[in-house]
Amino acid sequence: MNDNATTGNNNGGDLMENEHVRELFIILLENGKDASGLNALINHVCEMENFVKRAEDKIAVMKSQLDDIKEVQDHPIKTALQKTIASLESTVAEIKTQIAEIKTQIVESCKNAVSAFKEKGIAALDKLASFFNIKSGLQAIKDNTIKANDRCEKTVTKIETFSKNYHTAGRALKNMARMAVGKQPIDAVKESGKLARTIRAPYKFQIAIQRGIRNQVDLAIRAVEKLELKAESVREGKTAEKSEKPSLLATLEKNEQKSREQFGGQKPEPGRDTPKKSKNEAEV
To answer: What spatial distance separates the first Cα and last Cα of the chain, rounded to whole Å?
Structure first.
């Protein structure tokens, strides 16, 4: 099997197909170690990739729709929307690169964990979390999705403002025609027409995509923290077990205390036997 995952050029769920990842899972399972945290981490990263793919597809649709809507061809709103789409495209590309880096780190971490196991034995897997230092990278992805969401929200507001102005202007023209033939003007203004819904829909979807990625990032961070808690639990357990074993000094002090109690609080003299009870004392 090749090491494509180590280059950052992998797609979909190929993390689970990487030889180092698979070998670590086999080692964990064969030695009775909990692999659920690592499995969850990899699944969440793969889900992030799926969301990115959907985002890329939707951006392509957004570009096509914007070019097809004749009402905005000569309007400043088109320039604003084009800039927002370009910004979203850049953000998605950056997130995609960050996810590829996370995958590379995961593969390298699994490789290092396997090497540590082969060198030091099963005890090396008690601190599995120490091999996965990816929380800062995951947080960077989360920060990017938050920024992208903010841009989308602002764009939706611009679209709704444009739609309102568009319908206000349309109402004014219609009212001029109605008054010219003696009809009463129309006071009501449509809140959002087909044009606004068409332009706005991809941005709403993009917001959902970014939130989906962010949720997966949060779950991935929790999976890493689960590994950390497991390592902490093992370490505390070993520390407690070690502290329960009495030291040689403690054992000597305990024996000396028993001797003092046996000899009425006096430290026994070397070679002195335990006093024998008299016949009367024995009968009592």
So the answer is: 85
pLDDT at 62: 82
236/255 Cα distance (integer angstroms): 30
pLDDT at 4: 41
- Dist CA 244 CA 242 (whole Å): 5
Distance CA 143, CA 137 (A): 10
For the chain, domain boundaries: 4-150+212-243
CA-based nearest residue to 155, from 199, 189, 195: 199
Token pair for residue 188? 């009501």
Q: How far apart are CA 136 and CA 101, in angstroms?
A: 12
Cα–Cα nearest to 34, from 109, 125, 134: 125
**Residue 209: closest CA among 114, 112, 89, 37:** 89
Residue with tokens 């006071």: 187
Cα torsion angle, 185, 191, 194, 196, sign: positive
Q: If the chain, 284 residues long, is cut into consecutive pieces of 10 residues, what is the mean pLDDT of each piece?
A: 40 76 94 88 92 89 79 72 83 90 93 92 83 89 88 81 60 50 53 66 81 91 84 55 51 61 55 51 47
Rounded Cα gap, residues 53 and 58, in angstroms: 9
Q: Which residues of 238-265 are buried (b: 16+ CB within 10 A; e: fewer)?
A: eeeeeeeeeeeeeeeeeeeeeeeeeeee
Q: What is the pLDDT of residue 1?
A: 41
Torsion-angle region of 169 (φ positive above 0: left; ψ -120 to 50: alpha; else: beta): alpha
